[in-house]
Amino acid sequence: MTVQPIRLFGDPVLRTPAVEVVDFDKELRTLVSDLWDTMQSQGGAGLAAPQIGIGLRVFTYNCDGVAGHLVNPAWTAVGDDEQDGQEGCLSIPGLYWDCVRAKNVVARGWNMHGEPVEIQGSDLLARAIQHETDHLDGVLFLDRLDEDTRKRAMAEIRSASWFDGTVPTIKQSPHPLFGAR
After folding, report:
1. Would residue 1 count as lying in a domain?
2. Averaged pLDDT for residues 68-94
3. Which residues bind Fe cation (predicted)?
């Protein structure tokens, strides 16, 4: 379909919770295709609809040899294991910081045809599922960083060539934070 421009940190759409999809129609299939093409063109592990300016609960993913999309997703951690590792975001290009996430998750939602989907992910796939679902809730991974890392991250963002000077407030995630803010 079409590669879309990615919205960057500071754009209000990234801080606005997305609404549930109610129509599994041609427009949704076009959105999924656009998300896929845009994610692939940028080499991302995932991309959520708000990142291309669409406030719907849809994301695509392609990591650890598993690729697809989820509509109206919800995830739960499987066990108590955590992973702490580098995380980046296509809406915060070229910058990466360590972020704590659940190591194993199961996500449920629907595909673009309205059929139920369940995926189980560990490591990178689990990280991508959590990261993209956060986008659908208006949460950025910066919100999950410890205070010192978040301060360093904001300084790096402010000095990035793509940054336009708009600094949104850090938002509390509605999901468990595994001991982090």
Report:
1. no
2. 97
3. 89, 131, 135
Instruction: Grade residue 168 by pLDDT with cuts at 50, 70 and 90.
Output: low
63 is in an annotated binding site: no
Domain with residue 47: its CATH number is: 3.90.45.10
175 belongs to an annotated ligand binding site: no
Any catalytic annotation for residue 132?
yes
In a domain, 2, yes or no: no
Active-site residue among 20, 27, 118, 132?
132
The DSSP secondary structure of 36-82, one letter per residue, reads HHHHHHHT-SEEEGGGGT--BSEEEEEETTEEEEEEEEEEEESSS-E
Looking at the 3D structure of the chain, how many domains does it have?
Answer: 1
Whether 173 is in a domain gets the answer no
Is residue 3 a part of any domain in this protein?
no
131 is known to lie in a ligand binding site? yes
The CB-side HSE value for 175 (13 A sphere, CA atoms) comes to 24
For residue 86, the enclosing domain spans 12-158
